[in-house]
Write a structure and sequence with these properties.
- The termini are far apart.
- This protein folds into 2 domains: 176 residues, Rossmann fold (3-Layer(aba) Sandwich); 288 residues, no CATH class.
- The chain has 23 helices and 13 strands.
- Strands 8-9-10-11-13-12 form a 6-stranded mixed β-sheet, sandwiched between helices. Strands 2-3-4-1-5 form a 5-stranded parallel β-sheet, sandwiched between helices.
- The chain has 474 residues and is of the alpha/beta class.
- It is 52% helix and 14% strand.
- InterPro entries: AAA_14, DUF4143, P-loop_NTPase, WH_DNA-bd_sf.
- Pfam families: AAA_14, DUF4143.
């Protein structure tokens, strides 16, 4: 047994409270607020402790910077105060220090507590951060799960850990993806303005699950007073702040924009240098070009792989692999063109950023952030693309495409096998041409235009104009 590892773990266990405080309190002593997922995770653990549920393993995938570590630390702090035995560790740090995996960590922990996990009588809560750094994480967690019923496991990692999961662990674990903050979370954390209970679900149901456009309009109309009541508390300048950086929780604790965008830049460096090599095989020259490729996407999100290959002098297959990995890491959302395999073969994919703050960070460092007014439409498109990804792709409830033809719509949302909704995005007044063109082509159920407009229904075209006040509450 590695004695240095045991001593390190002993120090980590002894300093648990101080480490938790580091992740749950800001530099000025302010307590970080809880995100929506906090309540759900607490329920899983409470049900485990009270033997109400057999769910004993929760895995939280998501890309860096969305608050996974803070979430785990907040939960640990709550249950530490209730005198539960808690182990809170970064697998990434331990691998950097000792080049060990979760199996060795657990063996050392058993030496410290003086008994095997099978023998423990009181519940133990084990929290592992960044598990994807251990190539054997899935099989090891499965093994721990099967050894005892008295241990609750919670693990965070890059979004791609879902793809690395074995069928065995997929059957045993509950996956709760953590995505960048929605506007409601942003307001809750920044201004302590809490969402109206049930309103998000009602808006979502009206927009995406109505039988007809007229039904969607009627349902949205009935929610108008609740929507207006919420917005009466909101400073509308917060929309710009939200789209510029407010999807990242850490941004709300920072003193200025340069600190925020420096942090986003460092976050991208970590994804490129630490996460990408675990998801694909790239040499250092290729990794060195990734940021410049991302900037090219920030400037123009529909770019053919051949053009990028020529521009950066990188093999087209390697460019395709880069995008595949960035999509797996959930840094980018891929929106394929709509059509049959034959018609889309030569059409490029559209790539949006999972957080509009990433696109904005490129504008900031190139001195283009003052063009916010001309670029805010792209930031909103990132936001809505990420929203559709969260609501439909992650839930395996639908597909997202775009119309690659000249004058085609931003999104085609397919729900189930047959329902299709054409969606257009704008921060200004928007005409109907693009939506009409695409609706006629694909025989959609109805069209939605999200824009700065009043709520209205166009009977002739079967399009509902949905104000952004409604969108931001989903």
């Amino acid at each position: 047994m590695n004695q240095d590892l045991i001593q390190y773990l002993q120090k980590q266990v002894a300093s648990t409270d101080d480490r938790l405080k580091h992740f749950t309190y800001g530099p000025n002593g302010e307590k970080y607020p809880n995100r929506f997922l906090y309540v759900k995770l607490r329920e899983y653990i409470s049900d485990f402790v009270e033997k109400k549920s057999t769910n004993r393993m929760v895995i939280i995938p998501g890309f860096r910077g969305v608050g996974k570590t803070t979430l785990m630390a907040q939960i640990c702090s709550e249950f530490r105060k209730k005198d539960f035995q808690v182990l809170f560790l970064s697998v990434e740090d331990l691998r950097n220090y000792f080049d060990v995996g979760i199996n060795e960590i657990i063996a050392a922990y058993e030496k410290i507590i003086g008994e095997d996990l099978e023998s423990v009588k009181k519940p133990i809560l084990i929290f592992f951060d960044e598990v994807q750094t251990d190539p054997k994480w899935a099989t090891t967690l499965k093994s721990i799960f099967e050894r005892t019923n008295n241990v609750f496991l919670c693990a965070t990692g890059s979004a791609a850990i879902i793809l690395q999961s074995t069928p065995n662990i997929a059957r045993r674990a509950v996956f709760e993806p953590m995505t960048p903050m929605c506007f409601g979370e942003f307001q809750m954390i920044k201004n302590k303005i809490y969402p109206t209970p049930g309103l998000k679900s009602k808006i979502r149901q009206a927009i995406y699950f109505s039988e007809t456009a007229q039904e969607a309009y009627g349902k949205l109309s009935s929610l108008g007073s609740e929507v207006n009541s919420y917005w009466s508390k909101i400073d509308r300048h917060d929309i710009k702040k939200y789209l510029s950086y407010g999807t990242f929780p850490f941004a709300l604790t920072m003193p200025d924009e340069i600190s925020i965008y420096n942090s986003i830049s460092l976050l991208l460096e970590k994804i490129i240098k630490q996460d990408m090599p675990t998801l694909g095989s790239f040499d250092q020259d290729t990794l060195g070009a990734v940021k410049r490729i991302l900037f090219a996407i920030a400037e123009n999100d529909v770019t053919s792989l051949s053009n990028l290959a020529d521009k950066f002098n990188i093999n087209r297959l390697t460019i395709a692999n880069i995008f595949d990995v960035l999509e797996k890491a959930e840094l980018l959302v891929k929106i394929p063109p709509h059509g049959s395999n034959m018609t889309i073969a030569n059409k490029p994919n559209k790539y949006l950023f999972m957080s509009p703050a990433i696109r904005m960070s490129f504008f900031y460092f190139t001195g283009n952030e003052n063009t916010y007014l001309t670029r805010q439409g792209k930031l909103l498109e990132d936001s809505i693309g990420a929203h559709l990804y969260r609501e439909f792709i992650l839930r395996s409830d639908g597909l997202i495409r775009y119309d690659s033809a000249q004058g085609g719509a931003d999104f085609i949302l397919q729900i189930g096998n047959s329902k299709k909704i054409v969606i257009e995005v704008s921060l200004g007044s928007k005409d109907k041409k693009q939506v009409i063109n695409t609706m006629q082509k694909i025989k959609s159920n109805y069209g939605i235009i999200f824009s700065n407009t009043e709520l209205k229904f166009d009977v002739e075209t079967n399009i509902v104009f949905v104000p952004l006040d409604y969108y931001f509450l989903m």
